[in-house]
Amino acid sequence: MKFLADKGTQPQKTAKESLISGSYEYFDPANPDKCVVKTGKGYPEKNPSWFVPLDCPESLSEYGGPYPIKHVNMDWGGVSSLEQKPLPQTIPACKANSSGTPSQTLNKIMAAAVKQKDDKKHLSLIQHIAFVELDSNMAYKQAIAYHSTGKACHADNALAIIKEWAETNGHKDGCWEGHNGPLEGAWGIAAMARALELLRKRPNYTDIKGKFEGWVRSRITPKMADHVTCTCKKADAGVPNQLNNWHSSIVEAEMAMAILTDDKTRFDNAVGLFHKTVEDYVWKWGRQKGYNEVNGRCMGECTETYRDGCHPQFGLGGLIQAAEMAWQQDQDLYCSNEYALATAMEFKARVIRAGLAKDMSMLPPGFELQDLTKQPWKSFDDKLGKWDYDTAEQKWKYTLDTDKKYLRDISFLPCGWEIGYNHYAGRLGLPMTETAELLKLRWPEWLVSCLCTNDDGRTTS
């Protein structure tokens, strides 16, 4: 906060402007005294094929949505399909200039893709963008905009988006399927449930909330529950590294739904899964026998540290969001497992700063940033991918010729860094120096869910 004040920034005013316009400040890690204000029509600008708009317009026609889909089947998503088959420029999420009204909707594009027998991965990506990147995010932003501006149009927009999804996908002929179904559902309903929580006093709230509850209960909750039951049974049976970013996202969604519906049993179950996830996903690394320094691991790492730069932030983000919701219900989850989240935030912030600056001297000892121009492996299987990492086995799918701990695709993902920093540094007075330095470079945070582009323009999911 002192850093922002010294720069002449008014945090509340700037945050409000960022919400509406989508603009944000960017500081070059190599020259942090120089601030650049991004326009906010999409982040990041370096990928010409895709970005999600960050602004929060007063009119849904200007936004272009909502984009409800009756038959959802999200299997493996990924950037490969996006790079090979870019989305049409009529979608606001893809347009280089998002002004104007789109001439097509995602539903029409979906229908055309099905007719053309598009590959399953591409169809999954379209559905992901419709539900997670666009509509659920926009519903939450619109609800916040209603409170920050007092304009009823924003509340109406949020409720309209949620209603469309509840009625369309919740239709008797609708479905929610696919390998990624539990995760995608968790991402979207967490944001929509928080949006509804902010709109309790609106005239049509009760009716839309009822439809939303029914839709989530019939379509998405069973998918999340099945995934948690299956993986937790394996973990309890001694199978290692079963809990990951999926569980943190499901915790966030379940807690948001529990608060919205005033369901204490559901809330308590979410709290239990929270502690279990923090212990298995974060705490054990660097602390528990077999996962500590003897095996080359250190505190702050998580099960997905070597997978890439974004997935650990998905995991931390869901846990931080859930901890904040619980704090507002007078329950402290931030202290779970010896304040493991604070340690993880500091470790990951240090890694991200090094990645943004492309300065390996900033990394913890023993770590190295992945260099795509070099080949550190002795052998690999092309079918597996040169840089694939098996998180369950905690090993690369090839043999390295070095003992360095490689970190790949390091980038900044807005996932709740400010929320966690506000608790640990603001409420508790912990230094959190690495997190503070990271937030200087990317402020204010904005809401983003899955796809993230690195500084070199590549995208990861």
Structural class: mainly alpha
What is the element string, with H for helices and E for strands?
A: HHEEHEHHHHEHHHHHHEEEEEEHHEEE
State the major sheet: 3 strands, antiparallel
**Percent of residues in helices:** 40-55%
The rough form would be described as: globular
Tell me the radius of gyration.
21 Å
Unreliable residue stretches: 42-50, 78-86, 88-104, 379-385, 450-461
Approximately how much beta-strand content do the residues carry? 5-15%
Number of distinct helices:
15
Overall pLDDT metric: 82
* Count of β-strands: 13
- Spatial strand sequence of the major β-sheet: 2-1-11
State the separation between the terminal residues, measured CA to CA.
32 Å
Write the topology of this structure.
Layout: H1 2-6, H2 11-21, E1 24-28, E2 31-38, H3 60-63, E3 71-73, H4 79-84, H5 106-115, H6 120-149, H7 152-168, E4 175-177, H8 181-197, H9 205-236, H10 245-261, H11 264-283, H12 311-328, H13 336-357, E5 367-369, E6 377-380, E7 389-390, E8 395-396, E9 398-400, E10 405-407, H14 417-427, H15 433-441, E11 442-443, E12 452-453, E13 459-460
Parallel strand pairs: 3-4, 5-10
Antiparallel strand pairs: 1-2, 1-11, 6-9, 7-8, 12-13
Helix pairs in contact: 5-6, 6-7, 6-8, 7-9, 8-9, 8-10, 9-10, 10-11, 10-12, 11-12, 11-13, 12-13, 12-14, 13-15
